[in-house]
Specification:
The structure holds 2 protein chains of 2 kinds.
Chain A (H helix, E strand, L loop, with lengths): L1 H28 L30 H34 L4 H15 L3 H15 L7 E3 L3 E4 L2 E4 L1 E4 L3 H29 L5 H19 L4 E4 L2 E3 L2 E3 L2 E3 L1 H28 L2 H9 L4 H31 L11 H12 L2 H30 L4
Helix pairs in contact in A: 2-3, 2-7, 2-10, 3-7, 4-7, 5-6, 7-9, 8-9, 9-11, 10-11
Chain B lengths: L1 H16 L7 H8 L2 E5 L8 E2 L5 E2 L1 H14 L5 E5 L5 H6 L5 E2 L7 H6 L2 E3 L4 E3 L1 E6 L14 E5 L3 H12 L5 E5 L2 H9 L5 E5 H8 L8 E3 L7 E3 L2 E3 L3 H19 L7 H7 L3 H6 L6 H4 L6 H9 L2 H9 L28
Parallel strand pairs in B: 1-4, 1-5, 9-10, 9-11
Antiparallel strand pairs in B: 2-3, 6-14, 7-13, 8-11, 8-12
Helix pairs in contact in B: 3-9, 3-13, 9-13
Chain lengths: 371, 339
Amino acid sequence: MYLLQLGVVAGIMWMGYRLFSNTQANLEARNIASGFGFFSVEAGLPISNTLLPYSPADTYGYAFLMGVLNTLYVSALGVLLATLLGVLVGVARVSSNWLVAKLAEVYVETLRNVPLLLTLFFFYTVVLAGLPGPRASLRFLGHCFLNNRGLYLPRPLFQSGFGLVAAALALAIVGVVFFSRWAESHRQKTGTVLPTFRIGLVVIVGLPAAVFFLLGSPLKWEYAVLKGFNFRGGIVLRPEFSALMTGLVLYTAAFIGENVRSGIQSVPKGQMDAAKSFGVGKGVIMRRIILPQALRVIIPATTNDYTSLVKNSSLAVAIGYPDMVSVGGTIIGQNDQAIEIIGLWMAVYLAINLIISLVMNIINSRVQLVE
Amino acid sequence: MRTKKMLVVMLCVFAVTATQSFASTLADVKAKGYLTLGVSEGVPGFSIPDSTGRWVGFDVDMGRAVAAAVLGDAEKMKFVPLTSKQKIVAVSSGQVDITSRTTTWTMKRDAKQGVDFTFVVFYDGQGFMVPSKSGVTSAKQLDGATVCVTSGTTTELNLADFARANNLKIEAVVFDGKKEAFNAYTSGRCDAFTTDVSQLASLRTTVADPKSHVILPEIISKEPLSPLVRHGDNQWKDIVFWVIDGLVAAEEYGVTQENVLKIKKETKNPVIQRMLGVTGDVGGFLGLDKDWLVRAIQAVGNYGEIYNRHFGPGTKLKIPRGLNRQWKQGGLLYAMPIR
């Protein structure tokens, strides 16, 4: 029996070796280079929508990095927003308010049962068809503009001294964390409940604001201005990004909402009745009794949805958002070194998703029952 | 029993992975009985399925000519629609026998990407299209403009080069497919759309009001379009080259789809006699029979007939012959001697 297993392992290794040498031979026969040498060559390709400054004079390696950063950005923001929306939807699904519950159900069933690609095309088309051109932009809040080239917001320009404001904010947050810990232990000792949330809010907003005005408002704004074809300056949220984000978040939130619903329904009804009979408020029941127990059911399933979101972000390529797959695809087109780029794609997705799984497993082990 | 089954499966897998490289494409095509042609996802005039689902177009006819010469039947073909960035990998990996899909002949592709170019079938150049109402009359006015473009093409690089050379700030929105890019342009996402001029003319016919878009006068690049084959299979490359060369020569000598059989019977011109296999055996040089070119011309006509069928004055596209005239008329088409 061991001999057979050894044989199978040897066979698989031999196959792997043959695959590798065959690939090498075929690449050589067609004069296709291998390796990552091309990464240091000037890319010459245009990318709009990068997080760091980029120009076509940069290298292929840097261009690919821009794509990776965009993928990470979309994934991180997507996970965050989808979680917030998903929890809301899940709670709404079990709401005793008939209208709210039905609306949430319609939302979940619609989004879950339509392919994500179509959802993305839908939002992208709606964005482009529904919004006016730059010259007829919708203007709101003074210096914000919305048109079919994107949403233009003023860009904050930090003047000297703004660092102190940031420091004040950090100090306030640290202070509030310590205060709420003390307030908790105080409550356990004496039973007196302090208005922690309100005090915290005042400190976190008040302290930096006071520093800000004492220093004479060290912040200026760069406004978007219509110039030639389009607006220049300011911060731009392009339609490709907005459509991708909307599609990913709405789609994933539908799944997370179902996880939350099943999690909530997995908590025995007796607990709710018991809490009610003690006169505990509805919000507190949800926050402190139901959700902590529901998390045991919610987290494992949600880990899957997070990883799906990361993988689904590769659909960006269909609506013109330069994620890793889009930029990498262009690089393949220019160099034909498909194996290297596809290998990198797989490695990056694998790394992101392994990290997500790791973090979620740690969180999961914390919320499990300790016996 | 289980052990035995497993052994059989493993042996099969080994047999598959152990197959080295490819056999010759000619033998391969003859053995499977059809030609696999990589085409576009649907560019009117070049390659697009008609109302009955049959692929038609200029690029398609080049492939049909080869099928007729090699297999004796221009219908024995399978079509694989390819996006821009698939078109080279598809042929270098052997997924298709020929890619005939508006592909620009560049040094890097030819020398480094595992493909060989054959015969320039269309001399093209990259240009810009803008809505008429924008009032733009020159590409140099595009500073600050947003331009929709397809990924994985020379178009994308030419655009970046043009912007850098002229110190223009152009924002490119890059799409995977040509249709998506063009739709984004027509719905107002971009101020301009860029690709080869012939394709601009072609895509313009697909919008509701073609007159509402103008093509700017600047040609910012040279785009010699050529079918491509896998690098290293010289015999197959020769076949594709000489079949297309034969179509160009046929136009030069006045051999058409209609009169080819008649000319073959009656001609006294030794050049035409050699071409059409009346004397000598030029087909044999390629590993084909004597009637190779006669069949190709019967199937799709000579170069001029193919051009007129898809781009000529009777079509929607109406692309002037321009550089694609015969050398005797001041164009660049120059058939190598078939002898």
